[in-house]
Every structure is written in structure tokens, then in C-alpha cells.
């Protein structure tokens, strides 16, 4: 009925990027477990292209109150879906109020766009960048959106100290752990070693896992969601005093994002190495240590286009006894 009265979508809208054929695409998992490919951008990249409007019936007049395109950066908290928090909003008018009588296209360009955060989709929060075209009409606007992926490249100081920690039960167990670094890029390898100083309980097996902790909200409304990314069995059987076990964990095998701390005061994403020992009575002893993950610039990216932002990394060490 709405379409018959002339208020339905009498046109289709699409957005074509200038470098759509050559720009890198990355796979993105959707909420329904589907997958789509989005064009990849970095901080400072230009975003340009054209908005293509095709009338469903050529020659039939499409009245509008203006056409505009927006570049938006938005945070969506899933339990608060009614509120979207915009941290970037740029807009350009493509056409003044009037009539369209034939299909047409409008060029657009957003120069050196600041994209201060990385795109992220988690259990309870999503940070997205997208282009939105709006054809304003009297009753029902025609709106089309195109999702964009943004990666934040980081560089860290040369100092990257090793991690050392201990697990101990008085007169029963004393184990030392050492990892080669505290900060790792997403394709890095975690190298470490476990030393058994004192073993007077019968350990059945030991495993190492990466835990992702997603924190949303603040104060009394803070909510933490822990996700176990992997589980890697280090040892099966009882160790002896003086024994050492090497560890090599390849991060490239997992779908990880960089560490994200207090993003727009809405959420954080942190990673922990979680070491678990299980004795023959199935009692569990564990130790967690936070690590920092960062995204390294790909070799194929030209230096002038990297938009590398030097980030100060603060490793929060709260040892658990």
C-alpha cells in the first residue's frame, strides 16, 4: 500500500569506493554466524567514491528533501541497543531538495579521516565504521549503509621486559614461569619455560590458555565477559623436581584483536595467559598474567600510508597467589 501511494523505496542506493578493486578486504563474522568481506582502512586514509542512485522506474519523478552522505564511527553496547554512541561523524550534502527523474551518481570524498579506534565485534559490544547515504523524503527516508573495517597499527618502545611469576603452596609446590616478553604482535610467538623447583603433590596434567576479558560499562554497571580463546596441553603426567618444560604458542592460529583499554570510556579488551595445574584429586591450581597484544604494520603497506600511532603500553600486573 505504501509503495502504491508513492512513499515506498522507489530507488536503490549503492556506494562504490574509488579503490574498491585494489583495496584489501578482510573477512568479518556476522551475528548470525555468517561472513562478509569489508574493505580495510587505516587511520588517516582518505575515504572517497561515489553514491549511485538507480530509479526503479526511469522517468518517474522521485521527490526528495535533500541527499547526504555520512562517515560514522559508532559504539553499540548489545544490552543497550537503543543507544548508539558516535565518536566520529562527518557529513557532506550531495544534492539540495528537488526531484530526480533519472538514475544518477554523486561523488564524495572525506580527506585524511581520523579513525582513532580499531573495529571490534565482541560478545557484548561492537565498534563499527560505516558510510550512510540518506535520501530525505516527507514520510519515509531511503537509507543505505556500507560497512568499513579499520585496523589500528601500533609501535611500541624497544623495551619489552620478560614476564616472571611463581605458583606456590607452602612445603608442597613451587613452580616458576618465565615468558620471553610481555607484549606481542598478533602474529607473534609466545616463548617461555616452566621450572619445577619443588613438587610434593601428584600433578596429573598442566595446560596453558589465552583468556580474553571484555569489560563494558563502568562503576557498579561494569560487566566482565571472559572467553577462552584456546587450550594448550603442556604436560600429561607427573613432573619431578628440577625438570623444565618449554612453551611455544603461535598467536597467528587464533582470531585475536589488539588490547583495547577504556575505548571512548565504554569498553576494554584485555588478554591473559592462564596456566592451570590439575592434581590426581582433580584440584586445580592456576595463575593468570596479563599480556599486551598489538597490531604490527603489514610489510606490504607503504610507509606513508601506515598511519602508525605510537601507543604507550601499560602492563597491569596483579599476581594471584
Task: Give an overview of the whole structure.
This protein has 321 residues and is mainly beta. The chain contains no helices and 25 strands. The chain has strands at residues 11-17, 25-29, 35-42, 47-55, 62-64, 67-77, 84-95, 98-100, 104-110, 120-121, 125-135, 142-151, 154-155, 163-169, 173-179, 183-185, 189-199, 203-216, 223-228, 232-236, 244-250, 260-263, 267-279, 284-294, 309-310. A hairpin with a 4-residue loop joins β23 (267-279) and β24 (284-294). The protein is elongated, with a radius of gyration of 26 Å.
Percent of residues in β-strands: over 45%
Biggest sheet details: 7 strands, mixed
Helix-residue proportion: under 10%
Runs in which pLDDT lies below 50 for 5 or more consecutive residues are: 1-7, 302-321
Indicate the structural class. Answer: mainly beta
Order of helical and strand elements: EEEEEEEEEEEEEEEEEEEEEEEEE
Distance between the termini: 68 Å
Shape: elongated
Mean pLDDT: 85
Count of helical regions: 0
How large, in whole angstroms, is the Cα Rg? 26 Å
* β-strand number: 25
Quick structural summary:
The chain is mainly β and 321 residues long.
Amino acid at each position: 500500500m505504501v509503495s502504491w501511494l508513492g512513499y515506498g523505496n522507489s530507488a536503490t542506493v549503492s556506494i562504490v569506493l574509488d579503490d574498491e578493486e585494489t583495496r584489501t578486504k578482510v573477512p568479518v563474522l556476522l551475528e548470525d554466524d555468517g561472513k562478509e568481506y569489508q574493505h580495510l582502512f587505516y587511520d588517516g586514509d582518505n575515504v572517497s567514491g561515489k553514491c549511485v542512485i538507480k530509479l526503479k522506474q526511469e522517468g518517474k519523478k522521485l521527490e526528495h528533501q535533500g541527499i547526504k552522505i555520512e562517515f560514522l564511527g559508532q559504539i553499540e553496547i548489545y544490552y543497550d541497543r537503543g543507544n548508539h554512541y558516535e565518536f566520529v561523524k562527518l557529513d557532506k550534502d550531495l544534492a539540495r531538495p528537488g526531484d530526480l527523474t533519472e538514475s544518477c551518481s554523486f561523488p564524495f570524498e572525506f580527506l585524511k579521516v581520523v579513525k582513532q579506534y580499531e573495529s571490534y565485534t565482541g560478545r557484548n559490544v561492537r565498534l563499527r565504521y560505516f558510510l550512510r547515504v540518506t535520501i530525505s523524503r516527507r514520510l519515509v527516508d531511503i537509507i543505505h549503509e556500507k560497512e568499513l573495517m579499520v585496523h589500528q597499527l601500533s609501535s611500541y618502545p624497544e623495551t619489552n621486559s620478560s614476564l616472571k611469576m611463581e605458583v606456590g603452596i607452602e612445603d608442597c609446590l613451587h613452580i616458576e614461569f618465565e615468558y620471553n616478553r610481555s607484549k606481542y604482535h598478533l602474529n607473534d610467538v609466545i616463548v617461555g619455560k616452566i621450572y619445577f623447583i619443588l613438587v610434593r603433590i601428584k600433578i596429573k596434567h598442566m595446560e596453558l590458555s589465552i583468556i580474553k576479558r571484555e569489560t563494558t560499562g563502568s562503576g557498579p554497571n561494569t560487566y566482565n565477559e571472559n572467553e577462552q580463546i584456546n587450550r594448550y596441553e603442556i604436560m600429561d603426567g607427573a613432573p619431578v623436581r628440577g625438570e623444565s618444560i618449554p612453551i611455544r604458542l603461535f598467536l597467528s592460529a587464533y582470531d585475536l584483536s589488539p588490547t583495547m583499554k577504556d575505548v571512548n570510556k565504554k569498553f576494554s579488551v584485555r588478554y591473559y595467559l592462564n596456566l592451570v595445574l590439575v592434581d590426581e584429586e582433580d584440584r586445580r591450581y592456576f595463575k593468570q598474567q596479563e599480556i599486551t597484544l598489538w597490531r604490527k604494520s603489514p610489510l606490504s603497506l607503504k610507509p606513508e600510508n601506515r598511519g602508525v600511532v605510537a601507543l604507550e603500553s601499560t602492563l597491569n600486573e596483579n599476581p594471584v597467589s
